[in-house]
Design brief:
single chain, six-stranded mixed beta sheet, alpha/beta
Length: 629
């Protein structure tokens, strides 16, 4: 199938009457509808804009290739339009677009159609063709130009990875969300520029028709570096240990020369094994790298906390729902009593929260001693919970049980092999539970319960000034390492306070935890010149992460410029935490971000605290951060 089988005179507009991006898209869609190529113009428009929301299809050099694959397309087609004055299309090079090719593919587009559509994208990388199209005087002339160039393309563009063998070997992977246009344009740009530079290159395309020209293990091992130009997830694990340069697919189209030069000089990071490419994966990578640097103590503690969180989050939100009937509505003796509020409190407080500390202790012990540590840890945690030793007692119980079982394993190592089966089923649980229980009851529970009581009394009786200072400290801790040990210490303290019925600290903690990504998102919106294009795109995601109380959304920004970004985040979060305490905001739910606002005490003032911290963060980032080079 040829391009001229899809592009016809009845799907062409010379010239376009549109003056804006929205108008040109509407005009091309209506032309396809008028030519009988669509079943539903509205659905086609929805699909086209869904693609535009991911990244602009204005690729620069005066070209835009809006495209979609949707059930609204009846016949695979290409619509063409020309604007002599040019239209602002948010193009990558900031220039107006003159040539518009709208690609309409059916939802079940076959391989022949997809290859043809991809070929159009590649042909348009030819500067001479673009000039001819801009100077064409008729629709027929345009079709003849494209047919001639396509014939030339078929004759000399066969894939041959043995050509252009130079001193360096560069591999590349290209992928865009729809896999129709940008995927192949990026591949073609890299291949053409590599030929000019004398660099051997092979490009794997992840298009709608699947993976083509797949990189082999041998090629990966021999490669100098690998360029991953992708706006969607690709198979990355195979590149572990190699120098990898990750960029959006548009950068390969616009900056193929720079990327190949960087690859030849190995100016990239050695890939350590995170999955996928893009902003969300960079957050995951940073978290994984941090895990590798954690101490054994922290890893065991976080094992307990992570397994406990579902009980805390689920139970906490259910308790919050209970409070919507009234703070004492669960109490049969209170005038505001409501039977359903009591049911919610029994589920959330009596059951989910009742399991919180045993689960915490059990999984800490299991992290230390494997499965035999679970039962002693949970029993120790239950003793801590019922004796008043609380959260701190649960942590101690977990470590105590874990190391008791480790000692038991060493002490029983000399038993005959015939009795090996008795250890996990009898000896470890028997002696592990017994020794953990005895030590908890006679040595640990009472002193820790006294400490918890004293801490609770201090928090309840602290003056407003002291409360604000505590909020400032907790806020700064939340922003210091964004999901790391200091952040988790503050978060764990907040959960412990919720368990003890004090809802002030965790409100400050959540406000402060939302501020870093929200502040950076606002900074990328207001002060665009301080960020790269990729960071500005990441800022959009950071709005969602911040609103959801995912502090880790700030990690990629902090990793790129820690000396300036982290202090900015800490100041903003300290403001949010301090104001939350000053306003007396309370929060019975341990997680949820903006989604749990209905259960926040003094909700509107709480929003003021978050907004203030966000604005301060953005202003600090603008003040300290330098413009990208």
């Amino acid at each position: 199938m040829r391009i001229t089988d899809l592009l016809k005179e009845d799907t062409m507009i010379l010239p376009l009457s549109a003056k804006t991006k929205e108008d040109v898209l509407d005009e091309l869609i209506q032309q396809l509808q008028k030519a009988g190529r669509l079943t539903d113009a509205a659905k086609m428009k929805e699909a086209i804009w869904a693609r535009e929301s991911q990244s602009s299809t204005g690729i620069g050099e005066g070209i835009a290739i809006p495209h979609a694959k949707t059930a609204a397309v009846k016949i695979p087609s290409i619509a063409f339009g020309y604007s002599k004055e040019g239209i602002d299309f948010n193009s990558l090079d900031g220039q107006k677009a003159h040539l518009f090719f709208m690609i309409a593919a059916t939802e079940d587009a076959n391989q022949a159609h997809l290859q043809t559509l991809a070929r159009l994208s590649q042909l348009l990388m030819d500067e001479s063709l673009r000039e001819q199209l801009m100077n064409a005087s008729s629709k027929k002339e345009i079709l003849e130009m494209i047919a001639s160039k396509e014939k030339e393309f078929d004759g000399d563009n066969e894939e041959d990875s043995s050509q252009n063998e130079g001193q360096v070997k560069v591999l590349a992977v290209t992928a865009c969300p729809t896999g129709i246009a940008h995927t192949y344009m990026a591949a073609d740009a890299l291949k053409k520029k590599a030929e000019q530079l004398g660099i051997w290159v092979k490009v794997e395309t992840n298009g709608s028709g699947g993976v083509k020209n797949k990189l082999t293990d041998e090629e990966i091992q021999e490669a100098t570096a690998i360029i991953v130009a992708a706006d969607k997830q690709v198979d990355m694990d195979r590149f572990k240990g190699k120098v990898v340069i990750e960029v959006p697919v548009a950068q390969a189209i616009r900056n193929a020369d720079e990327l190949l030069q960087r690859a030849s000089r190995q100016e990239g990071s050695v890939y350590q094994g995170q999955r996928g490419a893009g902003y969300s994966e960079s957050v995951s990578q940073a978290k994984e790298e941090r895990k590798g640097k954690q101490s054994a103590f922290y890893k065991h503690l976080m094992s307990g906390v992570s397994n406990m969180l579902p009980f805390v989050v689920g139970g906490g939100i259910i308790i919050a729902l209970c409070f919507m009937f009234g703070i004492k509505a669960f109490d049969p003796k209170d005038p505001s009593f409501h039977p359903f509020a009591k049911v919610l409190m029994d589920i959330g407080g009596g059951t989910a929260f009742g399991l919180m500390i045993p689960v915490l202790a059990g999984f800490i012990a299991m992290s230390i001693a494997d499965r035999p540590g679970l039962a002693p840890g949970m029993v120790g945690g239950m003793i801590a919970s019922t004796s008043g030793a609380g959260f701190l007692g649960g942590i101690i119980a977990g470590f105590l049980a874990g190391y008791i079982v480790v000692l038991l394993k060493k002490g029983l190592a000399g038993m005959p092999a015939s009795l090996e089966g008795l250890k996990p089923m009898l000896l470890y649980p028997l002696f592990g539970i017994l020794f953990t229980g005895l030590i908890m009851i006679y040595v640990i529970s009472d002193p820790i319960a006294a400490v918890n009581t004293g801490l609770g009394d201090w928090l309840k009786n602290m003056g407003q000034g002291n409360a604000v200072i505590l909020g400032i400290i907790l806020g700064a801790m939340m922003a210091f390492d964004m999901g790391g040990p200091v952040n988790k210490a503050a978060f764990t303290f907040g959960i412990a306070m919720i368990a003890d019925g004090n809802y002030l600290p965790h409100a400050a903690i959540m406000a402060a935890g939302m501020t870093p990504p929200l502040g950076l998102a606002l900074a990328t919106t207001l002060f665009k010149n301080k960020f790269t294009q990729e960071e500005r795109q990441a800022g959009k995601t950071a709005y969602v992460l911040g609103a959801s109380f995912i502090t880790e959304g700030a990690i990629p920004f902090a990793a790129a410029d820690p000396a300036r970004v982290i202090p900015s985040l800490m100041v903003g979060s300290a403001v949010a935490g301090g104001l939350s305490m000053f306003f007396g905001n309370t929060l019975p739910a341990p997680h949820g971000g903006l989604f749990v606002l209905p259960v926040v005490g003094n909700m509107w003032l709480y929003l003021v605290a978050i907004a203030a911290g966000t604005i301060v963060t953005a202003l600090m980032v603008n003040l300290l951060k330098k413009k990208p080079v």
